[in-house]
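Sample entry was shown:
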Amino acid sequence: MELFVIAVLLFFNLVLLIQLCFAVSNLRNEVEYLASEIQTKDAMKHDHTLHMILDNMRQYHGATMNSIAEMYKDIVRKGASEGKVVGQASEENPKYH
């Protein structure tokens, strides 16, 4: 009778051990899944931030180039109104000859 009780207890211990193994395995899988989700979200945030920075750089570059073009146009207009040819050889600028 005692052996039967011990056998039943060992069987239930074995069942509980198997359930514990499945629980640990499921927990490990859940942790791996959550870790990959976090990495994916971090990568998406990084990509979004990088695209924002690049877009801002493009905008600032475009604005800077437009400002330089406007300044050059103003210089050319001012020179033309004074009768000078800007950016080409002239009597006043012998270094262009």
The first helix runs from residue 2 to 81. DSSP finds one helix and no strands in the chain.
